[in-house]
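Quick one, T. Sequence first:
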Amino acid sequence: MSILAPALTAAAEEAITAAFALRDAPNEQTLETLPESALTAADRFVAAAAHHFA
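Structure tokens:
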């Protein structure tokens, strides 16, 4: 992933990591909790981008 706005790097990496964690869930119980984490990370990225480009 290439980030063109360095200020968004941390939030973008968090969202990417959370999304990929869904694929690598070790068991069903873990998989049940991961979507919420991924959505939260994606929301943080969107909020960071909105703040950055405001």
